[in-house]
Amino acid sequence: MRGERVASLQLEPSALKRWAQQLFTGQSLLQLTIAAVAATLLVFTLQGWRPPFAYREGQVPDRDVVARVAFDLIDTQQTKMLRDQKRREVLCYYENRSQPITQLRGAIKDQLFALLDGVPFDELTAAQLRTLSAFVPAEKADVNPEGGPQKPQLTREEALTAARSLLGKSDQLDKFDAALRAILAPIAESGVLQSLGHDSDQGSQRSIIVFPAGQPDDEVFLDVPRVRRPEIAALLPQTVAEVFQQSFTSPEAAIVARMVSNYLANNLPETLSYRQDLSENARRKAEESVQDAMVSYFPTVSKLATAGKPISRADNLPLLRAEYNAWVAQLSFGETTFRLLAFIGMVLALYLLCGIYIYYQYDPTLLTEPTRLLRLLGLVVVTCSVCRFIAPDPFRAEIVPLVLCAMTATIAFGRQVALLVTTCLCLAITLGLGFDISEFVTLCGGTCAATLLLGRIRTRTKLIYVGLAAGAVVCFTHMGVDTVAGKLNVVMPASPDAPPLEVRTWLGLLPGLVSESLRLGGFTLLAGALMTGMLPFVERLFGVQTDLSLLELGDASHPLLRQLAQRAPGTYNHSINVAAIAEAAADSIGAHGLLTRVGAYFHDIGKMFKPNYFIENQEQGGNCHDSLQPAMSTLVIIAHVKDGADLGRQHRLPKPIIDFIEQHHGTTLVEYFFREAAKRSQTDPNKEEVSETSFRYPGPKPQTLEAAVLMLADSVESASRTLVEPTSSRIQNLVDQIAMKKLLDGQFDQCGLTLQQLDQLKSSLVKSLTAIYHGRVKYTGQASA
Question: Phi-psi region for residue 455, left (φ > 0), alpha (ψ -120 to 50) or beta?
């Protein structure tokens, strides 16, 4: 018996056991999965296993930076010089189309043979004279190619006589043709070029590669003077004379040789054309064959950056980056793992810090509702990812996503969460990207300023003004922090005997500091401007409404409000009155008055389906409920809540507005029909006792202060219409009675409304209703009421 009594005694489980039981529920596992995925993405985005690169362009080191490990770096300037030299040594390609040379041989024979018809010189036709002038140019003296004395001028008559004498026999014609072949064949094989098609930077000027047309593989290396036309023309007289001397024994052969050399010198065609594609391919291959010129650096010896001298992209930033990559590459697996574990520990510590505060001090639903948790952590991960992308040079604009995150978190989750989350985010970004303490203070200053200055957004320019003010805070904060951190200190030599360092006074560093501060301030202003355009998307994504969107939603031209005014004008007038008194009441207790007003506009839109069943829309002489049972009438009355919520979802009203529709009656009792049903039940002894449950609204009860204000304002506005003489005292008593009835009915249990706030609400509602029903002066002839 004693054992049974002991066993029957159930002790409360320990806190650890309760946490374990909650941990292994389906929703808790989902929340942990979301948090774990977000933490993994943060570690991956910020590369928690890898030490950050701590240098940026314009940064001024306070001491000399020396190499930590040995490494080699490509000397880009020397490598470029070697490649340029290799390009200049490349032999360019020229294509040889030798057909014009062959045609030239035929043209010489045809024109020269046209002069052999035996016609005297004086009887030559104009065409024959022009042909003869091609071989013997007028008023031109031939120069001895060997540098001897100038040859006598050859007359055309002499040339004609010599040609007819030499070529008059048929056997001489074959010798002449063979001589022309011997002269032109080498020229046709090598080609003729007037001038080079490439400059000295594109290839060699001494030699080229020549290949026959359509046969790029059959290439020949030739010196440029061999194919250049002026050089060929200068050598033609000697070449032609030697060939004719070997082919003919007659003395007239020298004169005909002079005629042929004159013709060739004036009519020699250009047969070589520059091939850009093949030449460029050769240059590219030549550049690729050049190995990079390397410079070696040694640990503790090689200086990478000088103290007091700003780091520049053209000078030492690539050097520092190469040293960093070499240092990271030589880190051991143990060092990498240890850093990764430390970074994960930091993320978990930030998780714990933010989670405890949000859960116990702010709003537990932000963590317990998977959708809200996903939005919060998604915002953090996206911000980190964007910071990782735009933080390095040349952008260096990590403050933009951080300020955008601060504004978004303020709008979606409130100032307290925004301050906490963005501060932790600035810390993670600072440590993950290798910033110093001054950068952390500057980032925190910008995010905190944007969060604290944001407030209510009622105009489109508000965010720009917030960005401007936050930019000023960032600008002055950065200047102050860098000054306090000693970044304007003078760099002096270490000792009198040491080589002097570059001395930079604060006057020399001040312009750079001011420029950097203005740049950060401008980026903060840019964030405010970007947020102006992003605001509608932020509201839709996070399910929140700013005052700006509420003002647009509360416009009387909204389709639902216009339909309500047309179908149920009494309800529309009632909604307008409730909105006016509810906004003032909400403002009196520090609630969101504008949200309450807009919610009041839509809270009764469900009545437009059956407007005549509600007293404010009924005309004189009839009541639709007279023919219905009280239970049926109750169903019709209660249905306007569900109908209004469905109508709001169909027209995509925001969730807070739909919450007003569902919660403005809570679970209150439809008293009139309940009493009517109870009265009928008393008169009929066979009927069952009437239950209140069937005559109550489905709820839920008000979950926010604004919903509680709307419930009370809706009730007192409707009830005040029944007062015969709505004096201030009667209105006061009415409001007190309705408020006490709601309080005792438990309608304010879930909204956090205090008794002090309830008293303030009653005072505000009495003032508003008294102003609406104030007394008026009766005019002469006016009927008494």
Answer: left
The first and second tokens of residue 318, run together, are 């690539």
How wide is the angle at C-alpha 288 spanned by C-alphas 283 and 292, nearest 5°?
130
Task: Give residue 739's pLDDT.
Answer: 93
Q: Is residue 49 pLDDT above 60, yes or no? A: yes
Three-state DSSP state, 222? strand
CB 731 within 8 A of CB 763: no
Buried (b) or exposed (e) across 388-420, using 16+ Cβ within 10 A?
bebbeeeebbbbbbbbbbbbbbbbbbeebbbbb
Residue 213 is given by DSSP the state T
Which residue type is seen at 513? L
Cα–Cα distance for residue pair 607/617, rounded to 1 Å: 10
Structure tokens at 203: 């290839």
Could you tell me where the beta strands, DSSP code E, fall in 157-316? 207-212, 220-223, 272-274, 294-297, 303-305
Residue 192's closest CA among 90, 89, 99, 88?
A: 99
Higher pLDDT, residue 674 or 783: 674
Burial class (CB in 10 A: 0-12, 13-18, 19+), 57: middle
pLDDT for 150: 54
Confidence (pTM): 0.72
Q: What is the pLDDT of residue 503?
A: 44
Could you tell me the CA-to-CA distances from 514 to 98, 233, 507, 511 in Å, in that order? 71, 71, 11, 5
Task: Cite the DSSP H helix spans in 120-205.
Answer: 126-135, 156-167, 170-190
Give dist(CA 752, CA 335) in Å, integer: 52
For the chain, the average pLDDT equals 84
**CA-to-CA distance for 494 and 293, rounded, in angstroms?**
35
Band of the pLDDT at 393, cuts 50, 70, 90? confident
- Residue 303's DSSP bridge partners are 66
Residues 354, 422 contacting (CB under 8 angstroms): no
| 576 compared with 171, residue with greater pLDDT | 576
CA angle 683–684–688, rounded 5-degree value: 120
756-760 long-range contacts (CB < 8 A, ≥24 apart) are 757/589, 757/705, 760/588, 760/589
Opening angle at CA 727, ends 587 and 782, nearest 5:
120
Question: How many other C-beta atoms are found inside a 10 Å radius of the C-beta of residue 548?
Answer: 20
Q: How far apart are CA 331 and CA 151, in angstroms?
A: 86
Least trusted range by pLDDT, from 145-149, 430-434, 684-688: 145-149
Least confident of 8-17, 221-230, 603-612: 8-17
The C-alpha atoms of residue 155 and residue 177 are separated, in whole angstroms, by 24
- The pLDDT of residue 686 is 62
Rg (CA), the chain: 50
pLDDT level of residue 488 (50, 70, 90 thresholds): low
Q: What is the pLDDT of residues 253-302, one digit of tens each?
A: 888 888 888 888 888 899 999 999 999 999 999 999 998 888 888 888 88
Residue 688, SS3 per DSSP: coil
**Widest pairwise Cα distance in the chain:** 161
Measure the CA–CA gap between 744 and 738, rounded to whole angstroms.
Answer: 10
Pseudo-torsion of CA 309, 315, 317, 318, nearest 10°? -160
Q: Among candidates 28, 9, 8, which has minimal Cα distance to 18?
A: 28
Dihedral sign from CA coordinates of 745, 750, 756, 761: negative
Tally of residues, the chain: 785
DSSP lists the bridge partners of residue 74 as 294
CB count within 10 Å of CB 283 equals 21
Q: What is the pLDDT of residue 8?
A: 53
Give the strands of the sheet with 220-223, arranged side by side.
220-223, 207-212, 93-96, 272-274
Per-residue confidence band for 646, with pLDDT thresholds at 50, 70 and 90: very high
